Amino acid sequence: MECCDVLIVGAGSAGSTIAKHIAKKGYDVILVDSRENPGTPQQCSGLFSKNILELTTLKKNEILKEIKGAVIYSPSKNKLEIKTKKTQAYVVDRTVFDYRLAIEAKSTGAILKTKTRLIDCKKNTAYFSNETKIKYKIIVGADGPNSTVAKIYEYPKLEKKIVGIINLYDKTQKQDFVELYLGNKVAPGFFAWKIPRKTDYELGIATELNTKKFFEKFKKNKTFAKNISTTAGVIPLECRKITVIKNSLLVGDAAGHTKATTGGGVVMGMRAATIAANCVCDALKNDNLKLLKSYEKLWRKEIGRDLKYAQMFRKFLNSLNDKQLDKFVYISSRKEVTDFLKKHGDMDYPNKIIKKLILKPRVWLPYVVFIKKILNIII
After folding, report:
1. What average pLDDT does the segment 273-300 reach?
2. What distance in Å separates the CA atoms of residue 167 and residue 194, rounded to the nearest whole number?
3. What domains lie within the chain, and their CATH numbers?
4. Angle 106-246-144 (CA atoms, 0-180°, nearest 5)?
5. Any idea what the Cα angle at residue 99 is, between residues 95 and 105, rounded to 5°?
6. Which tens digits make up the pLDDT trace of 5-58?
7. Mean per-residue pLDDT for 77-90?
8. Which of the four pLDDT bands, split at 50, 70 and 90, describes residue 254?
9. DSSP letters along 211-261, please?
10. What is the DSSP letter of 111?
11. pTM more than 0.90
């Protein structure tokens, strides 16, 4: 039987980040992943805002496209165009990115074990499908929305989840902007999208129900190339009510650190992982597992408000019928709004936008037509 201070289950971006920071402090860390290669297969679009550069570097071989804007289509094809001259986001190859982060964690001293799937935990001993046994002081669940760690430690369920499907097509796209498609007849509960990559492009969709059926309908007039691959995954749209129980904690998608507006969770997950690493090291240093509780308070203080605002905005959009969505996009396409979004828009931190928006009544006054919808969500 192997022993460690911290066992981290899941070598995605959040899991590898926390493993790296804890191992750097000299503690014994074992990072396990059920896959042969972390990041494979890629189950998300890999569209990161430029805020990712505050958390890690991006290597040349990881960047598939620099994105400078977006075009959002309403149900009746009204357009909201937000195009800039500067890079606002990056399309990243998650298979390369996640693997690199796992290797970085390994290089700092963490032991990396792949093809190692968690089965159960009893008395601080983890049992795996390949008959590996690991004794730990603290366990971290970074194993996605269907987290095994969360099930074993009986965390509250993620009540709000949707399913996303992605197809890749082998045709180069010259555009440097993403396309989003709204509508209850297109993608109820979320949206469909098109994202250009280096030598191919991606069509994707996420919905509350019948995702496959809506995807087939969406693709009909938009696919003119050969389908290279198809992947699917679960996207959490809310945080778990609790993310620390006993000597365990959850980070990333396992905790629900995902933006309900876009479904992206890498930036928020890596930020939460950094907070978690500090709390874990503090608990180990003082030999006091109760100090893990500070993680709950700290991540909610740092990123909780932004995640909450994203949930509220998602609820607002989902409350609109197609006619109202048309009106919302039409209002949003005004020059005052697009200029504001070009200057202050942020995919990750809506709290920053709201603070600046309050001082711009010319931007937000036309939205009072939705005041009843807004108040129903706020109150």
Report:
1. 98
2. 10
3. 2-44+93-158+241-303 (3.50.50.60), 63-92+160-236 (3.30.9.10), 312-378 (no CATH)
4. 50
5. 155
6. 999 999 999 999 999 999 999 999 999 999 999 989 888 899 999 999 999 999
7. 95
8. very high
9. HHHHHHHHHTTT--S-EEEEEEEEEE-S--S--EETTEEE-GGGTT---TT
10. E
11. yes
Report the C-alpha gap between 53 and 267 in whole angstroms.
9
Mean per-residue pLDDT over the chain, rounded: 96
Which residue carries 């700290």 as its tokens?
A: 298
Whether 379 has a pLDDT exceeding 80, the answer reads: no
Distances (CA, A) of 35 to 45, 114, 145: 19, 6, 16
Alpha helices in the chain (DSSP H): 13-24, 94-107, 148-152, 211-219, 266-285, 293-299, 305-318, 322-332, 335-344, 350-357, 361-364, 371-378
Question: Are the CB atoms for 246 and 233 separated by under 8 Å?
Answer: no
Joined tokens for residue 4? 């460690």
Token readout for 215 is 């995807």
- The Cα 108–Cα 24 span in angstroms is 6
Q: How many residues in the chain?
A: 379
